[in-house]
Each structure stands twice: as C-alpha cells, then as structure tokens.
Amino acid sequence: MIIYAMRSYPLAVLVLLAASAGARVAADKATMRAALVSAATIRVREVAQPVAGPGQVLVRIRYAGVNPADWKSAGGKPEEPMARAPEAIPGVDGSGVIAALGRGVVGYKIGDPVIVWSPTGGTYAQYVAVATDSIAHKPDSLSFAEAAGVAHAGLAAWNMLIDQAGVRAGQSVLVLGGAGGVGSAAVQIAKLKGARVIATASARNADYLKSLGADTVFDYTTQHFEDQLRNIDIAINTVDVDDAYRALAVVRRGGYLLSSVGLPAAGQCAARVVTCADRSRNGTPVHLVLQQIADWSQAGRFKVNVDRSFALSEVLQAWQYSQAGHTRGKSVIRIDD
Ligand SMILES: NC(=O)c1ccc[n+]([C@@H]2O[C@H](COP(=O)([O-])OP(=O)(O)OC[C@H]3O[C@@H](n4cnc5c(N)ncnc54)[C@H](OP(=O)(O)O)[C@@H]3O)[C@@H](O)[C@H]2O)c1
To answer: 82, 214, 244, 271: which has the highest count of C-beta atoms within 10 A?
Structure first.
C-alpha cells in the first residue's frame, strides 16, 4: 500500500491510500474505480456504481476537472453544497460518454459525449449519475480533457458577470486572477459580451491572457492595479479578500464587485455605492450556460487551457498543484482514456 502524506493546510490530515480492495461492495453489484474521501484519507478503491435515477443519465467519466472546491471540501471547508456523507467521492466537473439513461430522459442517448457538472460531487470516478439539467453535449471542438474544465469555473464566471452584474458592451471589466479557471472563463465571457477587459496575473501569463482577449494585463508581482485604474464598471475577484478591498477602491459608483473568495465589509460597499456580492446559485439554468459555452467553443470563441493532467492515483499531487495557486486555466484527472 502506498501512502502519501500532505503537508500544507487544509489537507494536512489527508493521506492517499492507493488501490485497496473493495471489501464492502456486494458481489452482485457492478463496481467502478473511484477516489473516496473518508476519515482523513483518500483511497482509490472499487465501489458500487451509481444508478441513473429519473431524469438522470449515467456518465462514464473520461476526465474529471480539478477545482479548489474539491480539496476545500475534503479538508472540511465546503464551498459547494456537497453531501457530507461519511464517505464522499470528490469532483464537481467532468466529461465523458452517456452509458445509461434514467426514466424520462429526453434529448440524450447512450453514447453521447457530454460535459458534466455534478454539484454534489462524484466525478473522481469511472461513473457518475447526474441530472440532465446539469449537463450539455460536448462540442467536437473540445477534447474530453478540455471539456472537463468547462463547468464549475464557467458557471461561476457566467453567474457573476452576466446574471449578477449584467455585463454590457463597452463596459470595463477588471478580472483579478485572470489566468486561473474562473478568471480565464471570465476574461473570455466579458470579451464575448463586448467589454474592455483588464486582468491581473504574473508576467508569465500575460501572453496567455491576451490570447483569451484581455486588453490590458497587470503583473501583480510588480504593479498595483489600484494605482492606475478608476471608474471600473465591474470587478470580478478570484484571488483573496485583500484583493476585494483593493478592487472596491477602483469600481465606479453604481458598479459591481463580484467575488468568489470573500467580500469587503457591507458598510464599505454601501459607502462607495457599489453592489458587492458572492457567486450565487440563482440565475440562468446550468444546462443553458453549459450549452452556450459549448456553442462558443464550437465557433472557436471559447477555449480551455489544460495545464496539467494527473492519474486518478495522483489525486493528492493534483490537489497540491491546485493549492499552490498557479494553475493556468484548468488541471484535470484522467479517469479513462
Ligand atoms: N463560491 C463558489 O461557488 C466558487 C466557485 C469557483 C471558484 N471559487 C473560488 O475562487 C477561487 C479561484 O478559483 P479558480 O478555480 O479560478 O482557482 P485557480 O484556477 O487555482 O487560480 C489559479 C490562478 O490564480 C492566479 N493568481 C494567484 N495569485 C494571484 C494574485 N495575487 N493576483 C492575480 N492572480 C493570482 C494564478 O496566476 P499566476 O500563476 O500568474 O500567479 C493562477 O493562474 C478559489 O478560491 C475557489 O475556491 C468559488
């Protein structure tokens, strides 16, 4: 048995116990390989396959997308409404092929390649059962690895920019953390909506951000964006609360500060007449957002950069890489090629 110990918080107590046998799976049930978090360990083990319920499809997962939400939830700080079962399979993002249809499913057939968002987790596995209102057809333009990086970040960026801030052509949009998963999606969506896009990243990501449509890139290691910007219509913050306070200083009266990583004190937002809000769960239905992003991708107008690809047995390495905070675009976990 291989055991990897994690050093950095919040995975300090997690270890990966590789390839143990599926002792608790009933002999008559179909099984699958999955990463399982329980009692401060992650085990790759053989578990029972899920079954597609009414309105659900069973997807054979090819790649799972890695999100900070995965290791935050495993470390006891859930940011997603993941079921806190005694044992949980991480992963809200995935891509794969439909293997079975639940009762009442229309619009999909067995064999269809799909993009998956599974808000209750479960994509770090060979199969996941997910409602059809949480998937979209995978466009040919995206590989399975790229498609696994679409949903969680794309949904967050869409929610903040479109559902909440109502971005319009000609507006200025500041994306803090532009090179990450949410930031890369936000830069592209803002540009697609006709906004002028300013983003922050380290210098090594300047060309990447310009290729996504950023008009101006601030190197956060040498520049203070707040010294040079004023009257920004919409700020999207994916870095930290400190950046949220700095962004508040540059957003115009009546503008928006949307943050997926914490907000300034409500009184300070009110004093500056800025609408400050978190990513919310209300807005455009998930499948419509995923379909629009798929259509943009098919038209060559939306890209997903796959930074690293890890094996299922390398979940902790994938999480350590994500925790280091310098993923360019998305990292993925290879479940089945
Ligand atoms: N509440 C929600 O529903 C929700 C949804 C999605 C995400 N989130 C949260 O939003 C945050 C971002 O998620 P993500 O998936 O986009 O993360 P990510 O992909 O891991 O972000 C990594 C990126 O952050 C950039 N970065 C690091 N420090 C920076 C700084 N000081 N200034 C500017 N850029 C910096 C890095 O660029 P360099 O390599 O150039 O440094 C890297 O490209 C996470 O905390 C996540 O948990 C919340």
So the answer is: 214
Ligand 1 neighbourhood includes 154 CB (under 6 angstroms): no
24 residue type, one letter: R
Q: Which atom of ligand 1 is nearest to the CA of 80?
A: 3
C-beta of residue 91 within 8 angstroms of C-beta of residue 148: no
CA of 308 to the centre of ligand 1 (A): 16
Across the beta sheet with 41-48, the strand order is 3-5, 15-20, 41-48, 31-38
Q: Is 271 left (phi over 0), alpha (psi -120 to 50) or beta?
A: alpha
Does residue 238 have its Cβ closer than 6 Å to ligand 1?
A: yes
Task: Please answer whether residues 72 and 90 qualify as being in contact, where contact means their C-beta atoms are separated by less than 8 angstroms.
Answer: no
d(CA 153, ligand 1 centre) in Å: 10
In the sheet that holds 172-176, the strands lie side by side as 216-219, 196-201, 172-176, 232-237, 251-259, 275-278
Reported as type and span, the H/E element at residue 158 is helix 151-158
pLDDT, the chain, mean: 91
Ligand 1 contact via 259 beta carbon (within 6 Å): no
Residue nearest to atom 45 of ligand 1 (CA): 261
Residue 87 pLDDT: 80
Question: Residue 311 and residue 330: Cα distance in Å, rounded?
Answer: 15
The answer to whether the pTM exceeds 0.85 is: yes
Structural domains of the chain, with CATH = 3-150+304-334 (3.90.180.10), 153-278 (3.40.50.720)
